[in-house]
C-alpha cells in the first residue's frame, strides 16, 4: 500500500443535518482556516497547495481536517490532487447569514 | 486583603476597536458561553449566579473571563454582586449581523 493512501484514509464529511454550529464557529476562529474559507468564497474549487497561507504542509492538513470535520468544506481526490470546495449552500440553508456575515466582518477587520 | 479581591484583580475589557473577530468566534464556540450570550440578549443585565448553566463556579468564572477578554461581555462590581451585560451595540457596530445571526442559528439548532 502506498504511504499516501495509508496515511490519508477515507475522508469523513458530516451530513448537512449533523453540522453543529459551535464546531463551525470553532473552525472559523483561526486565521489560517478563515483565510481558506474566504479564498473559497471567491474561487469555488481549489487544490490544496494553492491557498494564500504560509504554514507547513502538516499544519495545513490539520486545518483542512478541522474545517472538513466541522462540515465547512468538502474535499475529494482527483488524480494526484485533493480538491476543496466550500459547503456554502448547505451552511447558508442551515445557519442563515452566519458564514457570510462572519467572512464580511473578517475582510473588513483585516482591511 | 480579602481573598476575593486578591483573587479577582481588576477586570480587563478591550476597547471596542481592539475587539478581534476570531476571539469573538472562539468565545462563542462553547455551549456554556453561547448560552450566557443568548441569555443576555433576552435580559440585558444579570448577576453571575443567575444564568441557566450547570457548571462549577470556577468553570463559570473561566467562561466569563473568556467572554470578557474577547470583548463580548462587560462586567462590573456592585456591592457584593458582579453584574454582566452584553456589548451588543459595540459588536453590531464592528461586526454587523454576526452576533445576531449566530445566536439565531444556535436557538434554531437547539430547538
Automatic annotation (TrEMBL), chains A, B:
Keyword Transcription in record: yes
Keywords in alphabetical order: DNA-binding, Transcription, Transcription regulation
Highest taxon of the lineage: Bacteria
GO MF term list: DNA binding; DNA-binding transcription factor activity
InterPro entries: ArsR-like_HTH, HTH_ArsR_DNA-bd_dom, HTH_MetalResp_TranReg, WH-like_DNA-bd_sf, WH_DNA-bd_sf
HTH arsR-type domain: residues covered: 13-106
Protein name: Transcriptional regulator, ArsR family
Species whose genome carries this gene: Goodfellowiella coeruleoviolacea
Upper taxonomic lineage: Bacteria, Bacillati, Actinomycetota, Actinomycetes, Pseudonocardiales
Amino acid at each position: 500500500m502506498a504511504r499516501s493512501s495509508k496515511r490519508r484514509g477515507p475522508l469523513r464529511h458530516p451530513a448537512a443535518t449533523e453540522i453543529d454550529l459551535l464546531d463551525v464557529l470553532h473552525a472559523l476562529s483561526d486565521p489560517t482556516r478563515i483565510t481558506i474559507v474566504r479564498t473559497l468564497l471567491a474561487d469555488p474549487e481549489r487544490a490544496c497547495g494553492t491557498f494564500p497561507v504560509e504554514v507547513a504542509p502538516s499544519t495545513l492538513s490539520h486545518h483542512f481536517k478541522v474545517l472538513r470535520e466541522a462540515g465547512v468544506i468538502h474535499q475529494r481526490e482527483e488524480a494526484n490532487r485533493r480538491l476543496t470546495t466550500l459547503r456554502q449552500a448547505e451552511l447558508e440553508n442551515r445557519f442563515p447569514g452566519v458564514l457570510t456575515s462572519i467572512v464580511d466582518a473578517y475582510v473588513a477587520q483585516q482591511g
